[in-house]
């Protein structure tokens, strides 16, 4: 398993609990971390124990939006709608807004010098859950979009990577 994937699994297991990410008999795989080279820092606080929230303390309930700069916002918005089915921000009260399906969401800062996103100038990567990774990849490739499938199946699912027209990294995830 690659070092970066192992770090992601470790972060997922801390964020969501190992029993959610991995079957009970495999949860021990994500807990120990091999010695890491100095050039590969782990995500911030990845080795710290999760802090319990105070009972009655208000917390966020999910991600309400993802906002980022684009050279051509209209064209990029159409690309996301056409190829990934993400509805654009409504411009009227009767227009639909994109509705996500319930499921796990990982919130994970990565080291500043991570190579996982590709271009070091890109500061973020979005990960979209999909029901059928093979069908999504075929759909994107039919549209002429380059998609790289990670050939390995991990305890928490399968992954593929692509870039939008402005070079922003996208990871597709089919949970296990």
Describe what is shown at a glance.
The chain is built from five helices and four strands.
Feature tags:
TAT_signal; 2,3-Dihydroxybiphenyl 1,2-Dioxygenase, domain 1; alpha+beta; 4 strands; VOC domain-containing protein; 176 residues
Series of secondary-structure elements, N-terminal to C-terminal: HHHHEHEEE
Please tell me what the overall shape is.
globular
CATH topology tier name of the largest domain: 2,3-Dihydroxybiphenyl 1,2-Dioxygenase, domain 1
The first-level CATH class of the largest domain is given as Alpha Beta
Tally of alpha and pi helices: 5
Kindly report the spatial arrangement of strands forming the biggest sheet.
1-4-3-2
Within CATH, the superfamily of the largest domain carries the name 2,3-Dihydroxybiphenyl 1,2-Dioxygenase, domain 1
Kindly describe this structure:
- The chain is an alpha+beta fold and 176 residues long.
- It folds into two domains: 1-62, no CATH class; 68-104 and 117-176, 2,3-Dihydroxybiphenyl 1,2-Dioxygenase, domain 1.
- Helices cover 25% and strands 11% of the residues.
- The chain has five helices and four strands.
- The chain has a four-stranded mixed beta sheet with strand order 1-4-3-2, with no helix packed on it.
- Strand 2 (148-149) and strand 3 form a beta hairpin.
- The longest helix has 14 residues, at 3-16.
- The chain is globular, with a radius of gyration of 18 Å.
- The two termini are 16 Å apart.
- Mean pLDDT is 77; it is low at 9-48.
């Amino acid at each position: 398993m690659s070092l970066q994937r192992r770090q992601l699994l470790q972060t997922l297991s801390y964020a969501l609990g190992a029993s959610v990410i991995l079957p009970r008999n495999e949860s021990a795989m994500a807990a120990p971390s091999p010695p890491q080279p100095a050039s590969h820092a782990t995500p911030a606080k990845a080795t710290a124990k999760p802090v319990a929230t105070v009972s009655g303390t208000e917390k966020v309930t999910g991600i309400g939006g993802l906002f980022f700069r684009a050279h051509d916002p209209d064209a990029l918005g159409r690309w996301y709608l056409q190829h990934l089915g993400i509805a654009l921000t409504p411009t009227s009260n009767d227009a639909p807004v994109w509705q996500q399906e319930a499921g796990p969401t990982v919130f994970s800062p990565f080291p500043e010098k991570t190579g996982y996103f590709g271009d070091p100038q890109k500061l973020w990567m979005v990960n979209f859950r999909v029901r059928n990774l093979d069908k999504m990849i075929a759909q994107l490739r039919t549209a002429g979009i380059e998609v790289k499938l990670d050939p390995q199946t991990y305890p928490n699912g399968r992954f593929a990577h692509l870039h939008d027209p402005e070079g922003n990294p996208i990871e597709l995830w089919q949970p296990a």
